[in-house]
Design a protein that fits this description.
Length: 154
């Protein structure tokens, strides 16, 4: 699969690659797809326990994963899939706040799902698709990323 270029940002990303055998992002042509990004500190791996902090950090981790793979970041995201334990007003408001901060000039399409469980110690999971404008000026799916934060495990 030489046409696939895998990326793992330093710290949590490279540790996950070594211990869990997965990458943070993959470039396929002019697309970037990201794995789930949670509310962990990218250097230490420590997970925030408060929902707003987790979502803030997860958005920053998506930005980090995209840029590490050669993308421009959230400005290229056109689709977001988010998974929440629990799905409540606090999580929704935090998501909208970060959408406005990271994507002030466009509104992505968004699928938001409440689930009973996510990965260890996570409550929020966000996936998104981004277009990496190497030679294009329009948004096309490029990245998929996810966040998990589970309050019962924090």
């Amino acid at each position: 699969m030489s046409h696939l270029q895998y990326h793992a940002y330093p710290g949590y990303g490279t540790r996950s690659q070594d211990t869990l055998h997965y990458s943070q992002a993959v470039r396929v042509g002019d697309r970037i797809e990201c794995s789930g990004q949670g509310g962990w500190d990218p250097e230490s791996g420590k997970i925030h326990t408060e929902i707003h902090s987790q979502i803030d950090q997860a958005f920053a981790n998506v930005q980090l994963a995209l840029k590490d793979a050669g993308g421009k970041g959230w400005s290229q995201v056109f689709r977001v899939n988010s998974y929440h334990v629990p799905l409540n007003d606090e999580a929704m408001h935090a998501m909208v706040r970060k959408f406005k901060e990271y994507m002030p000039n466009h509104q992505p399409i968004w699928t938001c799902v409440g689930v009973s469980r996510l990965g260890p110690v996570l409550q929020q999971l966000i996936g998104n698709f981004v277009y990496n404008a190497i030679s294009h000026d329009m948004f096309i799916p490029i990245m998929s990323s996810t966040w998990h934060i589970h309050s019962d495990l924090c």
